[in-house]
């Protein structure tokens, strides 16, 4: 039985045979890893067909994004707002980072940041196209999402995981909410495989990261550096590169993300893939400062 997805008042048939009506041909040839030129950037309208295809064809993404078969307005706005949306009424900023292989969407990560004593930031979704998996793309996307998070000075984050993303979040130090604070030291004494086995045996609806807990922070620090050193080769858009050195929740940046016109005028979040193919490819370690300089917290045992 076919279903329909509503977006901006339009109804899209979710039958995969009709996907070509709104998405690029999923059977188009994917370039080999050796010939891929990856660009990490903000999402834009041109990415929406590939995004929509991922939501309608991947059950894990459908569970995250579809409620009553309607795409959340917060997510839909990100494509109109060039990947970054700052809310005036609350200290919140939503972002979607994408990794492109030429014009093909290889993966994306959506981040919802907030500075509120009653709420925590959320790593809302992570997706890697099945043709690009096992290349380190998930690591790259999460690494940069966490980089943006660290720049805010916040220390807690939650994530709803999938079976595919659970091992990655585990390595970054996300832990189940049923663990009491006094249990965490023993929890993080286990190695990655031991923790992962327990997470699979005792699943929870979401996971937590708390960088004020020393044992959690130690695991986070170690694997953050490890993923930096082993990153795939990619190019970073100038617009995103600038934002990786600022706190997107800071008041002085709020006006930059209040509406589309200001985004266009500021130049933030605009697709920039004009760099020539002979431009020197950058490694993540060249674009990121030493991790210890990104953010400092009061850490408790």
TrEMBL record:
<feature type="domain" description="N-acetyltransferase">
    <location>
        <begin position="46"/>
        <end position="193"/>
    </location>
</feature>
<protein>
    <submittedName>
        <fullName>N-acetyltransferase</fullName>
    </submittedName>
</protein>
<dbReference type="GO" id="GO:0016747">
    <property type="term" value="F:acyltransferase activity, transferring groups other than amino-acyl groups"/>
</dbReference>
<dbReference type="Pfam" id="PF00583">
    <property type="entry name" value="Acetyltransf_1"/>
</dbReference>
<dbReference type="InterPro" id="IPR016181">
    <property type="entry name" value="Acyl_CoA_acyltransferase"/>
</dbReference>
<dbReference type="InterPro" id="IPR000182">
    <property type="entry name" value="GNAT_dom"/>
</dbReference>
């Amino acid at each position: 039985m076919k279903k329909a997805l509503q977006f901006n008042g339009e109804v899209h048939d979710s039958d995969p045979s009709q996907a070509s009506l709104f998405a690029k041909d999923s059977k188009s040839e994917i370039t080999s890893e050796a010939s891929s030129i990856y660009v990490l950037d903000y999402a834009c309208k041109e990415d929406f067909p590939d995004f929509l295809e991922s939501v309608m064809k991947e059950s894990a993404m459908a569970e995250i994004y579809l409620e009553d078969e309607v795409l959340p307005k917060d997510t839909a706005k990100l494509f109109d707002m060039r990947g970054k949306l700052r809310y005036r009424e609350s200290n919140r900023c939503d972002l979607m980072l994408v990794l492109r292989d030429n014009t093909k969407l290889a993966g994306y990560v959506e981040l919802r940041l907030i500075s509120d004593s009653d709420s925590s930031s959320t790593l809302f979704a992570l997706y890697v196209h099945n043709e690009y998996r096992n290349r380190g793309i998930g690591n790259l996307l999460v690494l940069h999402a966490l980089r943006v998070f660290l720049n805010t000075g916040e220390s807690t984050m939650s994530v709803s995981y999938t079976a595919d993303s659970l091992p990655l979040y585990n390595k970054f130090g996300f832990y189940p909410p049923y663990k009491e604070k006094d249990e965490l030291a023993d929890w993080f004494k286990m190695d990655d495989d031991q923790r992962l086995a327990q997470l699979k045996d005792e699943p929870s609806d979401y996971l937590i990261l708390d960088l004020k807990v020393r044992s959690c922070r130690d695991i986070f620090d170690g694997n953050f550096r490890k993923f930096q050193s082993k990153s795939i080769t990619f190019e970073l858009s100038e617009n995103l590169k600038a934002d990786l050195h600022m706190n997107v929740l800071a008041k002085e940046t709020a006006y930059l993300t209040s509406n589309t016109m200001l985004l266009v005028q500021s130049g933030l979040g605009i697709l920039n893939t004009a760099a020539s193919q002979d431009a020197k490819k950058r490694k993540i370690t060249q674009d990121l400062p030493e991790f210890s300089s990104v953010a400092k917290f009061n850490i408790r045992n």
